[in-house]
Amino acid sequence: MRRFYRSGILFVAALSAQTARAEVLPVSGVDPALSDAAIDIESIAVSAIEGSQGGAQGFELRDKLRDAQVDGEAWFAVVDADDPKAQAVLSGSVSHASVRDQIDDKEVESCIEKDGDGKCLRKRTTFVPCSKLTVRLYPELVLRTGDGEEVWNYDSRVSDTEEYCEDESSRPTTSGMLDSLNSTLAWQIRRQLAPRDRSLEVRILERRKGLQKPDRGLFKDAVRMTKSDALSACIAFQNLEANNPQHPSLLFNLGVCQEGTGDLDRAQAYYLQVQDILGEKSYIDSALRRVASFKEGQAQIAARQAQIAEETDSLGDSAS
Questions:
Q1: Rounded to 5, what percent of the chain is helix, strand, coil?
Q2: What pairing do the DSSP bridges indicate for beta strands 120-145 and 158-165?
Q3: pLDDT value of residue 200
Q4: At a CB cut-off of 8 Å and minimum separation 6, what does 21 contact?
Q5: Fewest C-beta in 10 Å: which of 32, 87, 122, 151?
Q6: In 3-state terms, what secondary structure has residue 163?
Q7: Does residue 120 belong to any structural domain of this protein?
Q8: What is the rounded CA–CA span in Å between residue 124 and residue 12?
């Protein structure tokens, strides 16, 4: 299997096709896999997982890994464990434990006597027994290459707790909570092993104070334009930069525009300029973290491309 991924994340076409919405701009990128262990693995298998939840977790893992896509293309080919095409095999065990504990009773107040107008004259307090159910999954999973080398392992447990009282018609069950936990665990492992596409809308800044007077109306128009024509809005913001090179709202919005077209270096530079002017702000920190994540995702894709290209060259040399 040979696949190549483009490094551009959100293209100008997406900006120009934006539908009406609030004052936001679309950005998209690739968050990296949380581990580099499987970046050069294209075909993966899940062997029989042992333990009380092995069967359920094996099913979830195959499903999540098969659905892992980057830029619309499958990141892995999920094959059978005995398939010679499998470059790595995920194996191990997943067990579980559950416990019910009593918690404080729930105090329930009810009216036992009313007057003619329906006003409560006497109340009674009763106490309803309550409990909590805690379920935990204990994974011990290992990823090995075809020659048996261990390249990754995972043993972080997942758990959930639900409280309920005896007067409630619906109560949590161990099996129901296990279904949810197995899905959660499989998703965590998928995030460990494969990057993910992420798209979101970033709210722009609208404060005009400090802009050159002739530009304030143009800036307001550009902000309004983001609701229907993001590309034109970004062009309008760009046209205002020369006269307002230190205006934080304008610079931040330009950063979002650059991020939207996949130019992460320029986006980062704009966000850092805004940070120098305004200091630490949560929305700036969020933007910088997001860009750093997208850049790491791009680096992983580039490493995978290089590996595929090297393998392709090697096959060509062997054939000749």
A1: 40, 30, 30
A2: antiparallel
A3: 96
A4: 201, 226, 227
A5: 122
A6: strand
A7: no
A8: 67
How many C-beta atoms lie closer than 10 Å to residue 30's C-beta? 23
Buried b (16+ CB within 10 A) or exposed e, 50-61: bbebbebbbebb
Burial 224-254 (b: 16+ CB within 10 A, else e): ebbeebbbebbebbeebbeebeebbbbbbbb
Mean pLDDT (the chain) is 91
Could you report the per-residue pLDDT of 103-151, keeping only the tens digit for each?
999 999 999 899 989 999 999 999 999 999 999 999 999 999 989 999 9
CATH number, domain containing residue 72: 3.30.160.150
Whether residues 289 and 160 fall in one domain: no
- Which residue type is seen at 18? Q
pLDDT in tens, 2-26: 333 333 434 454 554 454 456 999 9
DSSP state of 50: B
What sign results for the dihedral spanned by CA atoms 153, 293, 1, 314? negative
How many of the other CB atoms lie within 10 Å of CB of 292? 13
Strand partners of residue 111: 123
Report yes or no on 310 lying in a domain: no
Give residue-wise pLDDT tens across range 182-200. 999 999 999 999 999 999 9
74-98 burial string, b = 16+ CB within 10 Å, else e? bbbbbbeeeeeebbbbbbbbbbbee
Residue 307 pLDDT: 84
Into how many domains does the chain fold?
2
pLDDT, tens digit (0-9, with 9 covering 90-100), for 81-116: 999 999 999 999 999 999 999 999 999 999 989 998
